[in-house]
Specification:
Blueprint: H1 2-25, E1 28-36, E2 44-53, E3 57-63, E4 67-78, E5 81-86, E6 90-92, E7 98-100, E8 105-112, E9 121-130, E10 135-145
Parallel strand pairs: 1-10
Antiparallel strand pairs: 1-2, 2-7, 2-8, 3-6, 3-9, 4-5, 4-8, 9-10
Length: 159
């Protein structure tokens, strides 16, 4: 009976250490991820979230099975003209929350395979690389929110 107890103790200790190693590897957190709902014929939408890395890192890419093309975009204002375009990556300074929202960095889901309806969940795969060149993959399930849910952004005056 004693050797069996020793094996169980070793197994529990090994699993505990494995759990600690897994926690240490989780370097980037994703908070409040969501995707904007679409109308039936709409072919693109946006994904939004807040990313926080525990060391200087960068978001390299995002992928999703609901879109043929997924790009990281940035919204900018220059000479009173708003423009939007793709960026290669987004810096994630250590310990600083970086917002991806409709007015700055965001993720564009283009060539949608179907309508995104409120209450659905969209899988997103984020690839983040730290300053040492180590990559991590984050799997996120982002809920789809209604078109009217702009979280305080009033676009009714835009034409």
């Amino acid at each position: 009976m004693r050797p069996v107890l020793n094996h169980i103790k070793r197994a529990v200790l090994g699993l505990s250490l494995l759990g600690l190693a897994f926690q240490a590897a989780a370097q980037t957190t994703v908070d409040d991820a969501w995707v904007r709902a679409t109308v039936p014929t709409q072919t693109a939408s946006g994904a939004f979230m807040t990313l926080t890395a525990d060391s200087d890192s960068k978001l390299l890419s995002v992928a999703s099975p609901v879109a043929k093309d997924v790009q990281i975009h940035e919204m900018t204002m220059k000479n009173d003209v708003m423009s939007m375009g793709p960026v290669k990556s987004v810096d994630l300074p250590a310990g600083k929350a970086v917002a991806f929202d409709p007015n700055g960095y965001h993720v564009m889901l283009m060539g949608l395979t179907g309508q995104l309806k409120e209450g659905d969940s969209v899988p997103l795969t984020l690839t983040v690389e730290n300053a040492k060149g180590k990559k991590e993959t984050l799997e996120v399930k982002a809920p789809v929110r209604a078109l009217t849910n702009m979280q305080g952004h009033d676009h009714s005056k835009m034409h």
